[in-house]
Amino acid sequence: MVGRIGLYSVLLANAVLVAVFFAQAGFASNALIVLGRLTGLYAALLMAFQLLLVARLPWFDRRIGMDRLTSFHRWTGFSVLWLLLSHAVFIVFGYARSSSLDPVNQLVDLAETVEGVLRAIVALGIILVVGAVSARYARRRLAYETWHFIHLYTYVAVVLAFTHQVAAGTTFASSPVATAYWYGVWGLALASVCAGRLVLPLWRNLRHRLRVTAVVPESDDVVSVYITGRDLDRLPARAGQFFLWRFLTKDRWWQANPFSLSAAPDGRTLRLTAKRAGDGSAALRHLKVGTRVFAEGPYGAFTTLHRTRPDAVLIAGGVGVTPIRALLEELHGHAVVIHRVSTDRDAVLHDELRDLALARGAELHLVTGPPVPDRLAPRELARLVPDIADRDVYLCGPPPMMNAVLGSLRELGVPGPQTHFERFSLAG
To answer: N or C: lower Cβ tally within 10 Å for the chain?
Structure first.
C-alpha cells in the first residue's frame, strides 16, 4: 500500500508541475493547438512514468509486486497511446485551421518544415504497432518472444519522442527551470531502466556466479532444480519471491523463464520447482549439473513484509504451492495451509509440506476433487478456518481458482490489506 501511494503521489505531483509549466509558457490563440500541446506534455510524462514501471527497481517491486506493476504498465501504455493520438490530431487540425491546407497536407508540411516532427511521426507509428500487438486478442496469438521483441522498439519510440520534445516543445524551452525539469524527468527514467534492467542483474550474476547443482524429479511432470553460487547469503531473496531464470545451454541461453522459489533461501542454495507446461519448463528435467545460470531478481511482493496479523492462512492451488511452501518456512505464528488439487497425484511437494507443517505446528488440509462444486466456497473456508477474518491470507494458484477464492474471502469479510496474492502466471 505504501508503495502504491508513493507511486500515485509522485505521478500526481508531476502532473501538477507540468500544468504549471504549461501555463507559464503561455497559450496559443487556437484552442486545438492548446489541447494538442497539453496532451503531448502529459503523453511525455506518462512515457517517462512507463520507464519507471518497467525498471524493476527493488524498492517498488517488493512493495507493489511485479504483477501490479505490469497491470499499471499496461493501462499506462494505452493511456500514452490515446494521448499521443490526441496530440497528433489536435496539433494537425489546429494548424490546418490557421492555414489554407487540409489536414493531410498540413501534416506533410509540418514534417518537412518543423524540426523533430518527422521523428514524432515515426515514434507514434511504433507506439501504434506496440499497442496493437499488446491488445489481448493479438497477445494471445503471439509467442512471448515475438511480442517481447516488438515491445523493445518502445525504447526507440521513447528516444524519438524525447528528441521531438527538445526540438519542438515550447514548454520544454519556456524557462531554464522547465528545461531542467524535463531533462531531470527523462534522465531519471532512463537511468532507472539502465540500473534495474541492466546494471543490477549483471552485477549480481557476476558476484554470485550461479550454477545448477542438482535436478530432482518430483513426479512425472514436476521437477526441482537446485542452484548454488558465491555469497548467496548476500542475495536479498525472500520466501515467496521469484526469479527470471536463464539457463546457459546452447539451445536455451536466450530464453528466460519465471519460476518461484520453492524453498526459503538459506544463504547456500536456491530451489525452484516447476510443472511441465511448455518448452521452457519441460527442458528443466534435462539440465546438467554444472550448467551456468543467469538469474534476474528476486522479484515479487508476495512475502512476509506486508503481514498485518500474527496468524496466517496459506492457500495454494496445484503447483502454486511452491511459493506457499517457501513462505511456511519463514512465517511465525500459527498457520493453516490449504492445498487445493484435483487428485492426490497433483499434490506437488505434499510430503515436504506435511513434514514442515508438523515441525512448525501448522494445520495442513489437502482438498481434492473436481472444480465443481467449489470446495473453497465461503462456507467451506469458514469450516476449515473459523477465524479466517482475523488472519493474513496468502493465495497462489491458477487464475480461475484465485478469482473464486478472492470472492469467498470478500464474502467472509477478510479485509483487503490482509489478503496477499500475486498473479503467478508470470512466476509459474
So the answer is: N
